[in-house]
Design goal:
The protein is α+β, with helices and mostly antiparallel strands and 463 residues long. Among the domains are: 42 residues; 80 residues, Sandwich (Immunoglobulin-like); 80 residues, Rossmann fold, CATH 3.40.50. It is 22% helix and 17% strand. It contains ten helices and 16 strands. The strands form four sheets. Strands 7, 8, 10, 11 and 12 form a five-stranded antiparallel sheet that branches. A four-stranded antiparallel sheet has the order 3-2-1-4, with no helix packed on it. Strands 14-13-15-16 form a four-stranded parallel sheet. α2 packs parallel to α4. It is flat and about 170 Å long.
Length: 463
Amino acid sequence: MAKSQDSFTFTVGKLDAGMAILLGERAHLIEFPSILLPPGATTGSIVNIAVHQNVSEEKRREAEFWALQNDILEAYGLTTPENPKLELRNVTQTSVTLEWPKIQLATAKLRTLDIYRNGQRLAAIPSPLTNNSTKLSGLDINTEYSFQLVLRTTAGTFPSNLIRVRTHTMTDTSGISVCFGNVQDEVLLENAKLALREMRAKWSEKIQIDTTHFVCTTPAATAPGAQASGNRAEAPGVEYQRALQLSIPVVQPHWILACHTEKKMIPIASFYLGANPSTNPAPYTRPQSMSQANLQHTPTSTASPAARSAANRASLPAPLRVTSTSPPNSALVNQPSANSEPRARSGGFEPTPEEFDGDAQDADATLQGATSAEKEAKRKSRLGTMDRNFKFPPTSPPPAVPDLPSSNKRSPDEDDAGLTSVGVVAPSSVEVPPPPPVEKERVGQAVEEGEEDVGETEEIALN
């Protein structure tokens, strides 16, 4: 093995401000920092350069590098963020309440914490570092859903466990979560709690995220053991005001008893605070329309199909037809008497020809077996019929028209002058105003307008 030289000889060829060009003995040309040249070296100077390896410095730097790596591993590599652990807190007919422990980020930084429903991102959890529960509403009744949390950090993505849950049916009341307010009747309060226990529901004294109803009999808050003032109105309680802010329905304890009796969820419309609750709520019925509510329905189960269809098609009650048995006798003109029974019709409808025919047939049926005189009397007394022997009275000449009296009589001479006997002015005596005089030709105006003066005209015979 050849021994390396201690130094190499170079000639300074070009010296610049920052770099120097060195020429070797074998025409080697290298660039060398001019700051490393000995003081006083200029162009053409000969310098010797020696290069040696510093092993001790290499070992020191290597040890320093690995010590830094160990520190980084202990600080950032031993602990990593944990996967969230999703848990089911409560489920109702239309909502699901989920909770999870506080997320562990280790030394990483949080990016997002998202909730997924059925494999699709639903929303981001607000304030994920302090919030550890959420309530998802607007779900379908008796439907299966899957939920999962996905934690994204600077150290990677960490999904949670998958939870599958089915929403309750209307007969499952175990999802009720009640917060009791001020219930003045202690017996009613105890009965409500017993009913909740039998329904496997739960209650609390504070509003929580899974609270479904706020139960009280008065919005006022009364401390335990304190006596309410008689005349002074107490302010609403804090939990009552919070229930209003969170849109939690405020109901009376009777709603719990009704749900326990019916063994299903009961509508809360009639159990709101201030309403008059009913212990036996009426079953749900579909409201009638205005046209159906005003009609008087008659049972049509025994009627024929044609009659039932006609009753269903009718928009107004059928007209009532009553035949009179005696001629009208009233003090008013064209008005029946009080003791008579006229032909009554609702709404003032005129009878149709079919109705007249039906009335005639009914009358003929009743007249069977009667004498001709009785039949004729019946026909004459029936309304809407004409006597066959009726004749109009004979016509007489019109009465003579008397002469009009004349107030001012005139002499024959005056009559000849144009005045009649009744004082009417004759047309011959009417004074007609003379026509307006014809204006002369405006010759000067025609000349001014540019018309030529044709002079005098001369008549020429045509034959």
